[in-house]
Amino acid sequence: MRRAAALTAVALAAGCGGGEGDEPIGGRVAVPNRDSSPPSAAVSLRLPGSGVVARAAQPGGPAPEPVRLTRPRLTGTTVGTDEDSGLPRVRVAVTESISCRAGGGRIVRRPRVHYFPPSQVERIRSAPGARIPVRAARTETVRLGRACPAGAEPVRLEGELWGDATNGLGLEAVTPHIHFRWSGR
User: Fold this and answer.
1) Which of 60, 100, 114, 179 is deepest in the core (most CB within 10 A)?
2) CA distance 83 to 40
3) Residue 107 pairs with which residues in a beta bridge?
């Protein structure tokens, strides 16, 4: 029951504001010695000048339908919750495969990955007894299609947006991926 209420709160908050970076929302909890339940996480995709066009959550249903971007830019928001072990980190992640038109009409494909914050070598884990937020959010705006070689321009891209949340004991929740596409002129 508590998990269902937490998921509802995460889903509702996923479209809400928040600046860039991990932002604590709500209360704090002392990290326990043990907890086998992972956090919950929700991600939303917002287009420039418009509202949320897609959401995905873990736990939750399947990924939404692919989103057609009007410009090569999107804003992703991840909101995570763990009322038992707290939440020291949430992350927004984007992959893209860019098709660039080079000289002579030749198409060059470039992959690109964005992690906010960047990947870490160490596992996230908080000391038992530390008081950390039960909820956190991160919002990032990503300009896409910026990896074409000199003299080439992006003509198409496709990719995925997802979010993840890590609780105080290092357990993770990863949302279903939201697929997106953009075609240039």
Assistant:
1) 100
2) 10
3) 101
Q: pTM for the whole thing?
A: 0.84
Could you list the residue range(s) of the whole structural domain that residue 147 is in? 2-183
Do 114 and 74 contact (CB within 8 A), yes or no? no
DSSP string, 1-47: -HHHHHHHHHHHHTTS---SS-EE-S-EEEPPS------EEEEEEE-
Report how far residue 173's alpha carbon sits from residue 167's, in angstroms, rounded to the nearest whole number.
9
Decide if 133 contacts 81 (C-beta within 8 A): no
Q: Which residues of 148-184 are buried (b: 16+ CB within 10 A; e: fewer)?
A: beeebebbbbbbbbbbbbbbbbebbbbbbbbbbebee
Q: Which helix (H) or strand (E) element contains residue 100? A: strand 89-101
How many domains are there within the chain? Answer: 1
Any idea which residue has 């990290």 for tokens?
31
Provide the residue type at 85 as one letter.
Answer: S
Residue 165 has pLDDT above 90, yes or no: yes
Interval 44-64: pLDDT, tens:
999 988 899 999 999 988 888
Task: Report the half-sphere exposure of 106 (CA within 13 A, side-chain side).
Answer: 8
Task: Using DSSP, state whether 169 is helix, strand or coil.
Answer: coil
